Amino acid sequence: MEAFLKEFGDYYGYPDGPKNIQEIRDTEFKRLDKGVVYLDHAGSTLYSELQMEYIFKDFTSNVFGNPHSQSDISSATSDLIADARHQVLEYFNASPEDYSCLFTSGATAALKLVGETFPWTQDSNFLYTMENHNSVLGIREYALAQGASACAVDIEEAANQPGQLTNSGPSIKVKHRAVQMRNTSKLQKEESRGNAYNLFAFPSECNFSGLRFNLDLVKLMKENTETVLQGSPFSKSKRWMVLIDAAKGCATLPPDLSEYPADFVVLSFYKLFGYPTGLGALLVRNDAAKLLKKTYFSGGTVAASIADIDFVKRRERVEEFFEDGSASFLSIAAIRHGFKLLKSLTPSAIWMHTTSLSIYVKKKLQALRHGNGAAVCVLYGSENLELSSHKSGPTVTFNLKRPDGSWFGYLEVEKLASLSGIQLRTGCFCNPGACAKYLELSHSELRSNVEAGHICWDDNDVINGKPTGAVRVSFGYMSTFEDAKKFIDFIISSFASPPKKTGNGTVVSGRFPQLPSEDLESKESFPSHYLKSITVYPIKSCAGFSVIRWPLCRTGLLHDREWMVQGLTGEILTQKKVPEMSLIKTFIDLEEGLLSVESSRCEDKLHIRIKSDSYNPRNDEFDSHANILENRNEETRINRWFTNAIGRQCKLLRYSSSTSKDCLNRNKSPGLCRDLESNINFANEAQFLLISEESVADLNRRLEASTFPCPFHLTSFSFSLDKN
Questions:
Q1: Closest CA to 192 of 133, 129, 238, 132
Q2: Secondary structure of residue 507 in the 3-state scheme
Q3: Chain centroid to CA 306: how far?
Q4: SUPFAM superfamilies this protein is in (predicted)?
C-alpha cells in the first residue's frame, strides 16, 4: 500500500472528495465486506446502498403516475422526466438547443433505433472501428439491407500529437478493411455520393481492451473526411454523421459534446451507477433527428390518428416523436439519485481513482515471471501505462501462459477466481473485432472455431493451441487497492510457478512440469501424496461407482458424466431440483460394453449398451454434442425407466462418445493429459475433481460441531490424497 500510494496517492481514494474511498466502502458498500471482490464494472457497476436508500425513500414518499395524462400527479411525473433529460445532457455538457435526450431500454435499443431510422440509400456507407460491440455491428444489417456499403476500419494515430487536427497533416488516419456489399451490382456515381448520408461509429472506450479513442475523430469525419479517408473508396463521400458508443467510457470520462459534437451518443445507466437496469438513452443532435425516418407510431408519439382511414398526425418534439409507449418513469426517477452520487465525486476524480488501480494491476502483471523466467501474462491494449496519457480506461485484459509457453484457458482462470471470491469476466465480451485483432485470429481460424462448435459464452477457451477469448478485470468508483492486491495475489498463487526440485535434483518450473521418464518412474520424485480411490459418475447427478484403475480419454475419465437426464421442457435435471436422482446407482462393465442402472423405485435393473455406434445425432438433439438413442423402442424403454425412477417425465441424453487415448508424448514417453485435445462432457467445472482426505475430515468436523442437526456424514469422494 505504501508503494502504491507513493506513485498514485494524488489520484487514488478521492483525497479532495466529500468522502474518501474507505468511508465510501464502510458506509455505502457494506455488502462487499463478506469477502466478495467485484471486478466486472465494465459489465455492470455496483449500486450504492445509500443511493438505493434515497430511491426507496423517494418512491415511498411520493406518488408517480403515467405521464400521458393531464392530472397533477402525471404532470409532476412529466416534470421529473424533463429534469432527468436535463441531467443527462448536463453530464455530457450538451446544450438542449443542440441535443435531445431520448430514453430507451438501454444502449442496445438506442443503437437499434439509429440503425432502423437512419436515412440509408444504396449510395450510403457505414464505417465502424474494429473495436466495436456486437450491438454496433448489428447496425450493419440495416445498412446492407438498403443496398449501402459497410466496412470495418482501424484507427492509426501519430504519436505525440494529441488533439492536433491539421498542421503538417492530420494526426489520425482511418485504414479500411474489406468492403461489404450485398447489392454487388450497384455502381456508385460521383454525383450521387454527395447526396447520400453516411455513418461512422466508434466507442469512446473499447470494452475489450479499455483503449480510449481520440474524440477528434468526430470533427475529422465531419469536417476533414477526404484527408482522413485518403486512399479509401470512401474519401469522396460527403455528409458524414458520427455515432459514439459511450456505454463503457462515459462512467469515467463522458464525451464533452460541446467540444466533440457527435450526432448520436448511446449509453446505459447501470454502467454508470448500477441501478436502474433496463434503461438507457440516445443523445441525438436536433438537426440529425430531423433526418431520421421513423415508420411505426404508438401511444405517446401521435397527436391524432383515425382508426378506419389512413390518417395520423405525429407529435413534433423529438422526444415525443421517437419514444414509443409510456416512459419507464420510475426508472427515470431513480437516475437522478445516481447522478447526485457521481456529481459529488466528479467524473474526473472517478477516472483518476479507477485508472490508478488498473495501471497498478497492469504493471504488476507485466512484471510477473515464472521460475524459468518466462512471462506469466500477455496484456492486450496496454502499451501506454502513464495515467496522464488518457489512452486507457480502468480495464485490464489479458491471458495467462504456463512456463512452457502454452496457454491457461480463460475458463480455468474464471473458475479459480470464483473459488477465491473474485468476480471477473472472460470471453470476447461481445466485441468480436477487438477479440480477433488482439488475439491475432484470422478469418479462417474464426470460421474453424465456429465449425468446431465454439460460440459466445461457451467453454471452448483454447482451440488448436490458441485462446478464443481473454480475461478482463475492470474497476469502478468504489474499487479499492485491497481489491487489486487480492487479485494480484490470486494470480501469483494460482498461476505463477516458482522453480522446483525433484528428489534426484532435477530442477523444473511450472504447475505442470514435463519430467523425464525416469523421474516419472521414481517415487522419490514426488511428495508423499498418492491417489487412493477413483469414482466414476456416468450419469450427471446420479450415484457413481468406485474403481482401482480406469482409462483416461480426452474428456477425463472414460464415460464420466457422459450422460445426463433432461426434462421435457429442455432443462437439465440435477439433484438440486430432483433429489430422487441420488437414489439411482450406476456401474459400467467395459468388457461387456454395458451401463447398468438401478433404483429402489424400479423393480428391474436397466442395461444400456454404450457402443458409440448406438448413438447418432437427431434433429431433437440437446445441443451440438448431445445425442439420443436412434432406436425408438430402446429410447422409449430407457426414458420410461428414468421417468419411474425420479417420478417425473424425462429423457436420457448422451454426450458425444468418448475415445480412450494414452497420455504419451511423441517419443512414447509418459506425458501430460493436457497435451491432448481436451473437452468436458456434462461436467460443471473440469474433467477431474480432486479431493483430499483431510478436506473431507475437516468438513465432517465442522458438520459435527454445527449447532444445526445434520443427518449425514461424508465418507466417499471422487479422488483423495492422504495428506493436506
A1: 238
A2: strand
A3: 47
A4: MOSC N-terminal domain-like (SSF141673), PLP-dependent transferases (SSF53383)
CB 281 within 8 A of CB 118: no
Neighbours of 144 (CB within 10 A): 17
Contact by Cβ (8 Å): 411, 461: yes
**Cα–chain center distance at 213:** 21
Beta bridge partners of 589: 594
Per the annotation, the verdict on 673 as an active-site residue is no
Burial letters for 603-619: b for 16+ Cβ neighbours within 10 Å, e otherwise? eeebebebeeebbeeee
DSSP state at residue 303:
E
State how far the alpha carbon of 214 is from the alpha carbons of 169, 218, 394, in Å. Answer: 16, 9, 16
pLDDT of residue 452: 81
Contact (Cβ atoms closer than 8 angstroms) between residue 580 and residue 645: yes
The pair phi, psi for residue 506, each rounded to 5°, is -65, 130
As given in the structure block, the three cell numbers for residue 65 are: 403516475
Residue 551 confidence (pLDDT) above 90: yes
Are 475 and 358 contacting, i.e. CB atoms less than 8 angstroms apart? yes
Predicted confidence band at 62 (pLDDT cuts at 50, 70, 90)? very high
* CA distance linking residue 283 with residue 285, whole number of Å: 7
Neighbours of 429 (CB within 10 A): 26
The reported pLDDT for the residue numbered 512 is: 46
Q: Is the Cα torsion angle 611, 612, 615, 621 positive or negative in sign?
A: positive
Residue type, 103: F
- Residues 6 or more apart from 187 whose CB is under 8 A from it? none
With a cut of 80, say whether residue 619 has pLDDT above it: no
Structure confidence by residue, pLDDT tens digits, 671-682: 333 333 456 678
Question: Taking Cα atoms as reference points, which of 551, 484, 430, 653 lies closest to residue 8?
Answer: 484
Q: What does DSSP say about strands 240-245 and 264-268: parallel, antiparallel, or unpaired?
A: parallel
Beta bridge partners of 474: 40, 395
Q: Which of 511, 515, 512, 513 is nearest to 496 (CA)?
A: 511
Question: Residues 114, 117, 118, 123: is their CA dihedral positive or negative?
Answer: positive
pTM (two decimals): 0.81
The H or E element spanning position 181 is none
Domains, the chain, with CATH or none? 1-26+348-495 (3.90.1150.10), 72-159+170-183+195-342 (3.40.640.10), 534-611+627-656+677-687 (no CATH)
Helix, strand, coil in percent for the chain, rounding step 5:
35, 20, 45
Identify the three-state secondary structure at position 358: helix
Question: Residue 310 CB: number of other CB atoms within 10 A?
Answer: 6
Instruction: List, in sequence order, every beta strand (DSSP E) within 84-124.
Output: 99-104
Return d(Cα 317, Cα 303) in angstroms, integer: 11
Distance CA 403, CA 46 (A): 36
Closest by alpha carbon to 85, among 294, 348, 336, 347? Answer: 336
* Residue 132 C-beta-side C-alpha neighbours within 13 Å: 26
Count CB-CB contacts under 10 A for residue 20. 14
Contact 623, 607 (CB under 8 A): no
User: 701 and 694 in contact (C-beta within 8 Å)?
Assistant: no
More confident residue, 614 or 122: 122
Q: Which residue has the cell 440509408?
A: 120
Reported as a single tens digit per residue, the pLDDT across 433-477 is: 999 999 999 999 999 988 888 888 788 899 999 999 999 999 999
- Round to whole Å and give the CA distance between 266 and 243: 8
* Position with higher pLDDT, 472 vs 383: 472
pLDDT in tens, 681-706: 787 767 888 888 888 888 889 888 87
Q: How far apart are CA 696 and CA 535, in angstroms?
A: 15
Q: Which of 472, 436, 466, 438 is CA-nearest to residue 452?
A: 466
Helix (H) or strand (E) holding 352: helix 347-367
